[in-house]
Amino acid sequence: MTEPTPAPDVAGGGSRTATVTSPSAAHVGTSSAARTATGTNGHHVDGESLGTNGHALPAAPGRPAHAASESRTADDVEAGIIALWHTYGESRRQALRDRLVLHYAPLVKYVAGRVGTGLPAHVDVADLIQSGIFGLVDAIEKFEPERGLKFETYAMQRIRGAILDDLRSQDWVPRSVRSRARDVERALERLGGRLQRTPTDRELAAELKIGLGELRELYAQLQLTSVVALDELIAAGRSTGGAGSSLAESLPDEGAEDPIATLVDQDSRRQLADAIAQLAERDRVVVTLYYFENLTLAEIGKVLGVTESRVCQLHTRAVLRLRTKLNEQLDA
């Protein structure tokens, strides 16, 4: 229990009952009566007694007047919850239900923490708590005190069920695939324990009593279950308060330039330019027009005033000389 919840007004005239004797509410707490101070007219305000004239009775000697209102015992709190359940069972008012939700809210946080322990890191516990609140409200509305069950036990089951239902509704993987994935994991653990090594696909298929082809089809289905959040921190970033990089930052950029390939390309271009500069003028013109200006051999022949076959000879000679000079540069 967290914050004490005061007993609700059940008499309709502003007075508060000191005890609850209804059998339907006696199961909620551990005590069916509360120790409260009441005056002769039955009125009770914040732990102080009221006399017949409506004034508060004096506090006990040596005790401050406000001490009684600050020292509410567990029995006082339990009596208030019992009375609250009794009144809600009779009126079914939403305001009373909301007070019960606030009182039992710590149950939701406890159950959400237990369920979230075995879930991936990208699952937010706050989302689980939100789903659990709906389960708590449903438990309060459907709880039947006359059955004699403890509400906390009943509510924890409803809260856990609401959280799991919400998780299943968000899962795009069929439950049959999840079940097969667990079977594969258990089989790998059994084989690993017996063989003391990683089992082969054939051994795993024999353990699962399926064919090798069926196992590979199962692998393809299980790929859907291997999903991680791109904003999840990796490596040392988990223990440094978020100072590390995220998984998205570690993925390769297919469009990024490779610095090593860029350097190699620049060096190759430099060597090729040096080799072209050492060619004869006519050979250099043929190479430039063919590779850089994208002219055909016939067009180059018109530019040089020679036949196409002669341009082909000049091109072959220029390529051979370039290859020789590049090999010399590599050897050097």
The CATH class of one domain:
Mainly Alpha
Shape descriptor reads: elongated
| Mean pLDDT metric | 74
Our measurement of the CA-to-CA distance between the termini, rounded to an integer number of angstroms, reads 84 Å
Question: How much helical structure, as a percent, in the residues?
Answer: 55-70%
The Rg value, from CA coordinates, equals 41 Å
CATH topology of one domain: Butyryl-CoA Dehydrogenase, subunit A, domain 3
Give the ordered list of helices and strands.
EEHHHHHHHHHHHHH
Low-confidence stretches: 1-70
CATH architecture of one domain: Up-down Bundle
Strand order in space, largest sheet: 1-2
> How would you characterize the largest beta sheet?
2 strands, antiparallel
Going by CATH, what is the homologous superfamily of one domain?
A: PhyR, sigma-like (SL) domain
Total number of beta strands: 2
Strand content: under 5%
Contiguous helical run count: 13
What can you tell me about this protein's structure?
- This protein has 332 residues and is mainly alpha-helical.
- Among the domains are: 174-251, Butyryl-CoA Dehydrogenase, subunit A, domain 3 (Up-down Bundle), CATH 1.20.140.160; 262-331, Winged helix-like DNA-binding domain superfamily/Winged helix DNA-binding domain (Arc Repressor Mutant, subunit A, Orthogonal Bundle), CATH 1.10.10.
- It has 13 helices and two strands, in the order ββααααααααααααα.
- It has a two-stranded antiparallel sheet with strand order 1-2.
- The protein is elongated.
